[in-house]
Amino acid sequence: MNKDKEEIILLAHGDGGLLTRELVNNIFLRHFDNPLLRPLADAAVLPAQTGRMAFTADAFVVDPVFFPGGDIGKLAVCGTVNDLAVSGARPRHITASFIIEEGFALAALEKIAASMAAACAEAGVTVVAGDTKVVPRGHVDKIFISTAGVGMIPDNLGLGCHRLRPGDAVLVNGSLGNHGLTILSARENLGLEGGLQSDCAPLNGIIRQLLDKCSGIKIMRDLTRGGLATAAKEIAEAGGIDIYLQEALLPVDAAARGGAEMLGLDPLYLANEGKFLAIVDPTEAALVVEILQRHPFGRDARVIGEVRAGKGNVYMETALGGTRIIDYLAGNPLPRIC
Amino acid sequence: MNVLNKLHDPALGRKMVGRVRELAARAAERLGRPVLLMEVCGTHTMAVSRTGLRGVLAGLLELRSGPGCPVCVTAARDIEYMIALARIPGVTVATFGDMVRVPGGQSSLERERARGAGVSIIYSPADAVELARQNPDREVVFLGVGFETTAPLAALSISHAAELGLGNFSVYSVHKSVPPVLRALLELGDVRVDGFLLPGHVSAVTGSRAFAFIGEEFGIPAVVAGFTPVDILDAIHMLLEQVLAQNARTYNAYRWVVRDEGNPEAQQVMEKYFYPGDAYWRGFGLIPGSGLFLSDTFARFDAGRKFALKVPAVADPAGCRCGDLLRGIITPADCAMFGRRCTPAGPVGPCMVSSEGACAAYYHYGATC
């Protein structure tokens, strides 16, 4: 396309006037349309619910905005939905606020909105409110999205670290590190090969199946920033137990392993956007694996370790028969991965 | 199964652990103490910790870290110079990520960046040239920290910048050479190791022959090692065989990557762009002929000459024992600050910062691993 004719976001698109209205109608309402959003009032009016509600907030600043396996829009929906899902909630509604840099291509914004709409449809949630701000060039980098999400928690469900017992099985639903490596490779133009792509996906479907059929799910955590290592450490500390992981059992696919090895990164600490860790009663571990493996987002699901009595440490039993500590990530951060 | 999978094969690894333990037990019995080997390379330090090998061999064999982490051996005065470069308006320093968190006297590149200085993290020296090309109004300085492995790449970046006619690109070279520091370590004689695990990547450039003096002059066995668990176990096995046979030769256990004579092309590039000079190392002070400085032909790409900054002399951080650690006198756990005042989140010395630093490895993976 001729650069001069390309339609771009102007400061006026964020001034609350005509252009703002046009933007909201032509892009956001067109893609997100639903009865709760349609009035475009100052607040969405939702029917009151009884029982417990989960409420989460998230912000997305990923660079690059488009990457293999997704984009900032899909990430925003999946990230919000997954926070609710691992809390045991059934995600219902989300909000989305856009902070856009002046000069951002309208076509790119449209593509982001479309992929958000597709992710919403897949996850069964609706966008019920939002906001748009445009800032001068250089004041943000391209586009940032801030979300909130609500979901209902079934009455009989009680997840929590207090339920953890020695012998509980630790599971993960597939290969680790793919999102973090994909973003790094795309941003730095590293050209990592082998079909590496983000695992960005809404997990509420697969988690719902688990919770419907298993009563022994004790806690779940999505494995975003800090990866599996950080999530395991947080759970161990909160529960006052130790977690032992088996290095030989960790699922890291060939693409992620190759990339991580080349860059000297540990997949255990790399971000995922479609992976969660579950700790379950050992008697149900086989059933959980079976249910997960039947779902497209859980083909490589497996037991990777167990809970033992302890004081909040995470250990890795290495392939050579050694044991090492897994601690919080410190230093060497990869900024702007989500 | 391809070669790489084979080298990560847990079954093969465990079998080799058994054989190494057996040999180590015999060697320890003969010596009347655990065998003491030094892994020179920071990547080996990390690999050994990550596989839990230290714990598996505990009591029979100790693996002590040496001066093989380039960020760690960079002298405090050079860190200070880099910080001073970053403070110059209009200058962007381009550096590998590890360097930004290393504490200088008062500040660090990370802190300078947060205050608005131009500090850019790159993955290859070529990225720094690209940065200079894209930002003609800024002076881009590549911080050349590394051994024989990264020096040729820095040289190629200068060659590339010259081809592009870039006047705004320079290199602050604190590149160093590994054989001289091992000679210095042996001459100091404050640690007596039974063998050296030699760095595989450095040897790929220098050749295993560059380390022949370790056996010939100092009577200590040495083996060039690769980086997978199987590679490392294989090299340890070869060292133990030598200890038991009272042999002292430099062998190459990484034959599919390292040649005796090294990589002549890389050596030629280094000779063209650098000259060996006396360089400061953390923990060692001045070591003759150990630094790789830009030759006069490329003076215009030498940030040291281009900016000619005067920075005040700075001492190593008070209480920091990185120097003793790099000389192999202590392990991280012997430092009173390790894990207490000095952690990866709040590092006092560079060995806790670098992804190849021994303190970072011991902290992340457990002090006994």
From TrEMBL, chain A:
Record domain PurM-like C-terminal: where: 165-312
Transmembrane regions listed in the UniProt entry: none
Signal peptide: none
UniProt GO BP: protein maturation
UniProt xrefs under Gene3D superfamilies: PurM-like C-terminal domain, PurM-like, N-terminal domain
Top-rank taxon: Bacteria
Residue ranges occupied by any PurM-like N-terminal domain in the UniProt entry: 42-153
Similarity comment: Belongs to the HypE family.
NCBIfam families reported for this sequence: hypE
Official protein name in the record: Hydrogenase expression/formation protein HypE
UniProtKB/TrEMBL annotation, chain B:
Domain of life: Bacteria
InterPro entries cross-referenced by the UniProt entry: Hyd_form_HypD, HypD_1, HypD_2_sf
Sample GO molecular function, one term: iron ion binding
Keywords, in A-Z order: Iron, Metal-binding
Coiled-coil regions, chain positions: none
Keyword Magnesium: no
Gene Ontology BP annotations: protein maturation
Similarity section: Belongs to the HypD family.
Record's protein name: Hydrogenase expression/formation protein HypD
Species of provenance: Desulfoscipio geothermicus DSM 3669
